[in-house]
Write a structure and sequence with these properties.
CATH superfamily: Clavaminate synthase-like
CATH topology: Double-stranded beta-helix
CATH architecture: 4-Layer Sandwich
Number of domains: 1
Number of helices: 8
Strand content: 15-25%
């Protein structure tokens, strides 16, 4: 069966049919999906009841998987292989996490607009999120088209942002949620990295804004001015006309390009209902700007 992609939004996001992710994908399938990602930036695959092994195999067809960040979670408390990021509300025993659980609180960062792994120098290319169990309501994921957001900037702002570099760290986004008592190791392991504010897609040549809640400064700018400017850009980039909201069904897999989109998770009753989601991420091609020596 031939792969087909149906648009889900006037600007981006497409629904893929004609593929069973439980089976190995052919080189032609990979090429078609990559072309779809270049065009749509977000692809939705319905009715894909895959297991972790099949999920990982599909991921590896597009590049090298990164480890999941799993901020706050201790290694001995992880319920999934570290190659998976776990945005779920379940502990290692499969039970719901309580209100004051540190890992649960750390995952509230997923509700901020962000780009996966922008706080690592290499960044990320694609992310692939699989829904295993979902709550009856809530828990949608919203995506913002950063290409369209860039295109809609006025000429003066485009000139201003063109050569700017931002400093990204997961500690910046978690500080917005009230985390403050970072350990010396967390501070050492999460030093800010620099990323260009404007990226150019290597295939299409389209420019996009590279934004995230992980941004804590702009190189060469006073921090208050930088943070106010980034907040304005995020408000601009997440206007409703630039956003696709995905309502999850069990066995959905959504794949997105972190170089062209920003995303966030939406609230649900996580103290009552389980939401089992598993994400893999493809490593990016390399730093967008040179990093300072260690």
């Amino acid at each position: 069966m031939t792969i087909a992609i149906r648009p889900l939004h006037p600007l981006f996001a497409g629904e893929v049919s004609g593929l069973d992710l439980r089976r190995p994908v052919s080189p032609a399938d990979v090429a078609a999906i990559e072309a779809g990602m270049d065009r749509y930036a977000v692809l939705v695959f319905h009715d894909q009841p895959i297991d972790d092994e099949q999920h990982l195999a599909f991921t590896k067809a597009f590049g090298t998987p990164q480890k999941g960040s799993n901020f706050v979670a201790k290694r001995d408390s992880l319920r999934l292989d570290p190659v998976f990021a776990d945005p779920s509300n379940l502990d290692k025993q499969g039970k719901l996490r309580d209100r004051f659980d540190a890992t649960r609180l750390g995952r509230f960062g997923n509700r901020l607009w962000h780009t996966d792994a922008s706080f690592w120098a290499q960044g990320a290319k694609y992310s692939l999120l699989s829904a295993r169990t979902i709550p009856p309501t809530g828990g949608n994921t919203e995506f913002a088209d950063m290409r369209a957001a860039y295109d809609a900037l006025d000429a003066a702002t485009k000139a201003e942002v063109e050569d700017l570099a931002c400093e990204h760290s997961i500690l910046f986004s978690r500080a917005q949620l009230g985390f403050a008592d970072f350990t010396a190791k967390e501070l050492e392991d999460n030093k800010p990295v620099r990323q260009r504010l404007v990226r150019t897609h290597p295939v299409t040549g389209r420019k996009s804004l590279y934004l995230a809640s992980h941004i804590g400064g702009i190189v060469g700018w006073p921090q208050p001015e930088a943070l106010a400017f980034i907040r304005d850009l995020i408000e601009h980039a997440t206007q409703r006309q630039f956003v696709y909201a995905h309502t999850w069904s069990v066995a959905d897999l959504v794949m997105w390009d972190n170089r062209q989109t920003m995303h966030r998770g939406r609230p649900y009753d996580d103290l009552t209902y389980a939401r089992d989601m598993r994400r893999t991420t493809i490593a990016g091609d390399g730093p967008t700007v040179a990093q300072a020596a260690a």
